[in-house]
Design a protein that fits this description.
By secondary structure, the protein is mainly α. The protein has 2 domains: 96 residues, no CATH class; 82 residues, no CATH class. It has 9 helices and no strands. Keywords: Cell membrane, Membrane, Transmembrane, Transmembrane helix. It is found in: Membrane.
Length: 249
């Protein structure tokens, strides 16, 4: 009887493990903050489109092309909505232009946040915040929220799929919006409560609230990608300050 050595079963790697971004979480966080300041501030014109292009390149490099395609389509639709007022002056075009204006900015900001979340593990984020000497009052809430949001989005997607299987599709949402919202929110809240309990237990096991600085197995080093990201952040900050001082557009 022949025997074979048992092979260790390798669990499926999480989605974040397949990303290609080699920059430090601190530099990525800095880039996300700078882009959000530009997008949600008073900047406009070419600087806004530079920030949008940087986010698009980051999505193409680190995430799937589908995410970049959706990002491009939403930006194009927003620009088209803002341009309607030139061809069709009137109240509806003005309303669509205002909606497109804010959709454009929120799309860039949310896409930058999605890129950061998708390319950063929780352990990397916690290690980066400890390395930056941030207080625990910031480290603990940020790490819990960072871990909770992806799980909450998965729960929302699961509940939406279950509703679709039971026949609660788009027409039902139009005919009975309050009942549809109730059928979506109640299961999501129940699942979120269970998830919060599990995350609290996991945080206690990992010693997230201890007074001493925990030992991390993640080694954070600054390299060439971090230098590139830092240069981009400095260039964007300088352009933002110059644009506020001397408006070019």
């Amino acid at each position: 009887m022949s025997t074979h050595a048992p092979q260790a079963a390798h669990p499926a790697l999480p989605r974040r493990a397949s990303v290609r971004c080699g920059a430090d979480p601190r530099s990525r966080l800095l880039l996300m903050i700078v882009i959000n300041i530009i997008v949600m501030g008073r900047s406009s014109g070419w600087l806004l489109w530079v920030a949008a292009a940087i986010v698009g390149l980051a999505l193409v490099h680190d995430l799937r092309l589908r995410a970049a395609a959706i990002y491009t389509v939403v930006l194009g639709a927003s620009v088209l909505a803002m341009a309607l007022i030139r061809w069709w002056p009137g109240g509806p075009s003005v309303a669509l232009g205002i909606i497109g204006f804010w959709v454009l900015r929120f799309t860039i900001a949310l896409s930058a946040g999605a890129w950061f979340v998708s390319t950063t593990r929780v352990t990397e984020l916690v290690a980066a915040m400890h390395a930056a000497r941030l207080p625990r009052v910031l480290i603990i809430p940020l790490s819990v929220i960072f871990r909770f949001l992806p799980v909450a989005l998965e729960e929302i997607g699961g509940v939406a799929e279950a509703m679709a299987l039971r026949g609660y599709t788009g027409s039902y949402w139009c005919r009975h919006p309050l009942a549809a919202i109730e059928k979506l929110v109640v299961p999501v809240l129940a699942a979120s409560a269970r998830t919060a309990d599990e995350l609290s237990a996991a945080a206690l096991i990992r010693g997230l609230g201890v007074s001493d600085r925990p030992t991390s197995v993640v080694r954070l080093r600054w390299g060439v990608p971090d230098a590139v990201v830092a240069a981009i952040c400095l260039a964007l900050t300088g352009a933002l300050l110059a644009q506020n001082a001397v408006p070019w557009t």
